[in-house]
Records
---
Amino acid sequence: MSFVRVKDNVYLLRVPHGGTTTGVILLDGEKKYLIDAAGTSEEVDTYILPALSELSLSLSDIECLLCTHTHGDHIGGFYRLRQLGVKRIAAYTRSVPKIKDPLTYNIEIRKAFPKNSPPPSSSLVGTTVDLALQDGDVLDGRIELVATPGHDDDTVCIYDRATETLICGDSVQHNGTLVQGCGAYMYLEDYRASMQKLMRLSAKTAVLGHPFLPHGDVICGEAAVRDFLSDALRLTEVYRDFVAAEYARGERDLCTIARNLVNFVGGVMPEHLFLPLYTVREHMKEIV
Ligand SMILES: [Zn+2]
């Protein structure tokens, strides 16, 4: 498993994780940055370190480790990278307490739909953050944190000014990943505002945390990135209309609507329905 070159100074490592892949992004240059760290310590040892060494890099070459949000599939490797001596970890202010105690947060987000959530990721171990960043902060004149809540309240994009690349993590969902069923957002109004905000950046490339359906995990070209963001916005309207139609025909059970939504978007029915349920709950708030 190797880092794939997306463009000059931007590399993506697709780490196998839970039936899909989770992206680890290397921003190369005079200073080097890692964004996201896969799901477990084992994934760090098995995939991230060997892939770095293929590029003749080691952890000591990395200036700073950042994350797009604090879900386990993105920060599960943080503890291991800290243990191995990564120089510095920077994160969005809202993510700092969750990185310190990811398991508590992992349990917390399962409480909304306990019967439909997977068991907590008990392997998650917390670590400290060296530098807390606010929305709009820029590291080394290059790495800009763009708060893009919606999927969760601490989801961010990292905008690499040097390469005009937007590292999206899970901030832009479209129809979700192969194992998720449909696009998932816990905060719909924030999600829509975040898509508008991202469009104003005029990024030339976008790299996503997973292959999201139907666009995949790498989008190249300014027009393509703009279309991809407006498509994410359009899909929230498609979802809204679908949920409204379900409600209008008398359907009230969130699980049934969530299952119907997954079928409607052509998604694979997920083993646990909690992410589609969050999405449906948000659209129901607009209706009721
Ligand atoms: Zn993810």
---
Amino acid sequence: MKRRTFIQSTLAVGVSGALGTLLGCGPRGEVPQSPVTFTPGQEMPWINWAGNQSCTPNWRVSPSSEDELVTALKAARGVVRAVGAGHSFSAVVPTDDTLISTDLLSGLVRHDPDKIQATLLAGTRLHDMGPMLQSVGQAMPNMPDMDYPALGGAVANSVHATGTSFGSMSSYVTGLKLATVSGELLECNAEKNPEIFQAARTSIGALGITSEITLQNLPSYDLTEVNRIEKFEDVFADMEARCKAHRHFECYPIPYSTLCITVATDIAKPGDKTIGEDDPQAVNTLRTVFDAVSWVPVVGEGLYEKVLTAAMGDAADVVRTGPSYQVFPHVRIVRFREMEYTVPAEVGPACMREILGTIRDRNIPLSFPIEYRYVKADDIWLSMFEGQDGCSISIHQFGDLDYKAVFAEIEPIFWKYGGRPHWGKIHTLGAEQLAPLYPRHWQDFQEVRRELDPRGQLMNAHLKDLFGV
Ligand SMILES: Cc1cc2nc3c(=O)[nH]c(=O)nc-3n(C[C@H](O)[C@H](O)[C@H](O)COP(=O)(O)OP(=O)(O)OC[C@H]3O[C@@H](n4cnc5c(N)ncnc54)[C@H](O)[C@@H]3O)c2cc1C
């Protein structure tokens, strides 16, 4: 039985009939909450996946070759920005001048079976990369929890997954080609243009547009993922052991409850079988229950906790097994907005506890489970994991609810723990606060940026804030 069906049936039996009718409201959050209205005959706006960023570019270009990309970038008018899949929540893409889409720069360029490396065009979507790499016997060592982004967009923001032995996607980049606003195409790796390489592996699109990217992969492999409902305190008491025991481990504490969802992923063993199925609507069901009963007090603990424990406490595990590129990603159809900070790994549990306590103490209206992951340190200048193992904590709010007020309550907790914001997610920091978070290489990055883009053509309003331009 799917967990959602299980909750619904439990509610129908255990709670009043009035709640039953609430559950009949149907799925929510599937329709993008668009910030702009499209008027036929008028300029077509660009909107991100989350529907919280938009712009109306005067010029749109979709180069289909490296030559076309170089020409487009050199000829670009006004502020020029690249767009991959538009899956960032922060305002890294918007420009009302020139928007360059990398959609047509897609495909496998070459592969090296000895080094297990592959070079792909930067507009290739992660969901296309899986089968492409599989066809040459390779697979990415790790992947984020969905596969919609383009490779270039993911690398620009140091996109990551979970696993104490695994770095972000940027950390697997061994080389790239970068088109600049001056019309150059620079080959960058540890030997050629090494400083630009260190900056371009997490560039937020501030140096130019990558045309191709070489990744260090692994021989292709199968995974098995086990999803379980557990007590938050049991999981956190055992966190270190679990992170060691599993190739990948993450969890999602559920606000206002003692429960969390755990996800443990390992190399598949012979005989592993898929059991149950992923329910992309589960968060909507949780929200329905939260809206219906969270305000009802019950002696000792809230009704919400009781209902959740009754409904989910002994729910069966959901197991997914198959090729790695099919097991890592999940379907994300419920629209949300997200803030994520990476704190030093050792303070992750304290930060998580303070967030959950604050939500409860201040009655913050947030039912969306909080994502808790670990990522290995790297040496990439502006990567959130530069110089330190990180614990990434993500706060999500439903796309039709006010995220600003909720994030404003929680963001200062991340600052207290020395958190670095995810470049592609919502935060309010500018250059003054960001520079001290990257003490080793903030200035190095600015020098490379000024050298490659002296007139600031790649600086939209958001990047100007980030870099103090
Ligand atoms: C449902 C959902 C789930 C998510 N899950 C995760 C997750 O598990 N882990 C995680 O880390 N993030 C996650 N994110 C965040 C998201 O994946 C990142 O912000 C990612 O960078 C988006 O990639 P994109 O191709 O959509 O890039 P875009 O949003 O289109 O662009 C991102 C940045 O990259 C630049 N850029 C794009 N292409 C190039 C290029 N070829 N060369 C240079 N710069 C370029 C853009 O100018 C911009 O600055 C999630 C987002 C959503 C919506």
